[in-house]
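Posting this for the archive.
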Amino acid sequence: MISDEQNKRTPLDPEGAGDDAPCPDTARTGHEQGLALSAEAMERLMRDRFERPMPKRFYETVSVSEKGPPFAILLDERPVKTPQKHPLALPTQALAEAVAEEWRAQEERIRPFTMPLTRLCNAAIDRLPQQKAETIAHLLKLAAHDMLCYRAEHPAELAARQQELWDPVLAWAEKTLAGPLRITAGILPVTQPPETLTALEQRLERLDPYALVAVAAMADLTRSALLALAVLAGAMTPEHAWAAANVEEDWNIAQWGEDMEAAARRRQNARDFFAAARLPALAGSAVSL
């Protein structure tokens, strides 16, 4: 279902940015560095989705093994394998049933981009054991230039909306991480205190593979590690976080209307984001921040 080239990817975008993913240009500064990987990964992701052929559905029945944990996904009573040939065996029956439902929903052809939980579980099983340090490093880099710390100077309405949606998240993060976060206006870079990033790193290290994959996916889709962490901790709802992540885009739409292609991309991103937000609870992840 997924090619060897795609297997290289890490769970840092909706389908995972890979070892060969473009790195942010060293000439970029501040929040631009945090946005660069997400934008480039998303461009490649959308191109892959429309250019690669979709495999035909090759199975009739989908079920979940009765014995567990772990709970296997069965296609015509045969266990599903991940792209790296590991059993797609999941820690809870709830997660296994949710993944199985994605497989049941496939029609004549299998469309991987409609199976976000399957992709995230593949990443948790195949990539996180080897790439945990790389994933945490990516999240720390994103947090160092977190979108919430870069504010519009004008128009006043947009700046006020950012303050309304973003300030409570920053206040929660400062309390949770026991460290300050620096805010700037415009795109001039601001450096976050090392002690704050160290506290974030310690909390990320404690996460199990499913929670870490979920945070990485949400962070890449929202361009904010802080929003992702707040959703994981239950400090804000996924709906509130998605609105906060799209405050500037929503303001632009209100002014000039919505582009159809951008709207389709946003719907896909929303599907991936809300699946990632569900994953830790489905997997029974113990979250202690």
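The longest helix spans residues 260-283. Strands lie at 9-10, 17-18, 62-64, 71-75, 78-79, 89-90, 150-151, 184-185.
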